[in-house]
Amino acid sequence: MKTDNKLIGAGLLSAIGASLCCITPVLALIAGTSGFASTFSWLEPLRPYFIGLTILVLGFAWYQNLKPKKQIDCNCETEEKPKFIQSKIFLGIATAFAIVMLAFPYYSTIFYPKTEKQIIMVVKSNIQKVEFTINGMTCASCEGHVNHEVNKLIGIISSNTSYENGSAIVEFDSSKTNISEIEKAINSTGYSVTDKKEN
User: Fold this and answer.
1) How many CB atoms lie within 10 A of CB 181?
2) What stretches pass through the bilayer (predicted)?
3) Most distant CA pair in the chain: distance in Å?
4) Global confidence as pTM
């Protein structure tokens, strides 16, 4: 049974490790420490291995828990009921938690507050669009973090970030903000702007 506990622990740790790169930006937002967001982005290439390890370890824990026990023919007392931490209920809770952790990148954007921009009037000649190339983004959570920081600036019309393309296309009123302010906002997340191109 101690082996089962170690397996469950290993499964949970690998599930957390698989999504740590996406959990960190949300924690950084909650804590108000934006620069902390990209700390675990180096784990992203290892995500498939963590997922595989989680499935393997928890699958083996379930196998160990569900396989028939060997019956010993004797007049001894029956085995006592296992502790909660060694029960199928606990293993079920651990498995559900692992699934929630593994799926985190797909629903992480719900944690970012919607920043509604109310632009009353913009002179057309002041509208500028810039594409920033950003290094270090690994999932939708990173996109949400960049958009959140950029949208805090006055004069932002739209911010469309893509971790897959490694870029953010920002449309803004050049009379209210500028490219260097937007770049500074992006860099404050812990990801870094490597190039910018005006559209």
Assistant:
1) 16
2) 12-34, 46-63, 89-107
3) 92
4) 0.61
Taking the domains of the chain in order of start, what are their residue ranges?
2-70+82-108, 112-198
- Angle separating helix axes 47-66 and 88-102, nearest 10 degrees: 170
Between CA 25 and CA 188 the distance in angstroms is: 12
pLDDT of residue 198: 86
CATH architecture, domain 112-198? 2-Layer Sandwich (3.30)
| φ/ψ of residue 68, rounded to 5 | -60, 140
Query: How many residues in total does the chain contain?
Result: 199
> Residue 107: what residue type?
Y
Which H/E stretch holds residue 89?
helix 88-102
Packing angle of the helix pair 2-31, 47-66 (nearest 10 deg): 140
Q: Side by side, which strands form the sheet with 167-173?
A: 156-162, 167-173, 127-135, 192-198
Binned average pLDDT, 10 residues per bin, the chain of 199 residues: 68 72 65 58 73 84 77 57 73 85 74 60 84 87 86 90 93 92 90 89
Q: How many CB atoms lie within 10 A of CB 159?
A: 24
